[in-house]
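Help needed: design a sequence for this.
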């Protein structure tokens, strides 16, 4: 890829990229080749050792996807009922990652993406409470709240319910998060766009990219 002139590589997955140790090795090699690297992860395997190795590579950004604001909603959304410790492990990993980022004085942009879905709306309060308790505003650059997308059936989740959740976040949680230095991004534009009837019947995207799975 480097020899072919690829400049930027985002490590992501139709699943969790850190489930295999090859991901970190791939990121290391890409970095040595002069590529700009970045990572999307669900944080489940982002323990202290992994965070240390990752941040030493100075990725451009690391974004952690959050699927629910407590154990119950996270399990309901992911259907990972046997993994009862997952949510709390992710919260602990966020704390460890933030601490290591601060120690290394890393410039990596660190953000969270909370997926707003009928199953995760009622646990937003718990999630915000957990984040505020961590006091990681010095290291955590932003939290984005974005609507879940139904990729399979075309019909999206009720727009009114999602928009009401966004308004609730705006009214009750944004100030407290921003007081700790955490920017909040509410993806209203995606809510309306997902529910908008499209006038075209052909995809006009012209970007060219390669996925290696």
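Sure. Designed sequence:
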């Amino acid at each position: 890829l480097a020899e072919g002139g690829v400049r930027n590589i985002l490590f992501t997955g139709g699943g969790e990229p850190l489930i295999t140790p090859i991901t970190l090795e791939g990121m290391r090699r890409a970095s040595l080749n002069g590529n700009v690297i970045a990572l999307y992860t669900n944080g489940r395997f982002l323990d202290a050792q992994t965070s240390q190795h990752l941040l030493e590579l100075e990725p451009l950004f690391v974004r952690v996807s959050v699927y629910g604001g407590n154990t119950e909603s996270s399990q309901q959304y992911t259907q990972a009922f046997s993994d009862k410790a997952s949510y709390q492990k992710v919260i602990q990993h966020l704390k460890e990652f933030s601490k290591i980022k601060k120690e290394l004085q890393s410039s990596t942009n660190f953000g969270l993406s909370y997926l707003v879905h009928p199953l995760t709306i009622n646990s937003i309060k718990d999630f915000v409470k957990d984040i505020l308790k961590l006091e990681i505003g010095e290291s955590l650059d932003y939290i984005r709240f974005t609507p879940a997308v139904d990729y399979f059936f075309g019909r999206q989740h009720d727009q009114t319910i999602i928009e009401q959740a966004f308004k609730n976040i705006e009214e009750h949680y944004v100030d407290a998060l921003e007081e700790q230095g955490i920017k909040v991004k509410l993806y209203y534009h995606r809510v309306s766009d997902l529910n908008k009837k499209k006038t075209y019947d052909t995809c006009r995207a012209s970007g060219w990219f390669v996925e290696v799975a």
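The chain is about 40% helix and 15% strand.
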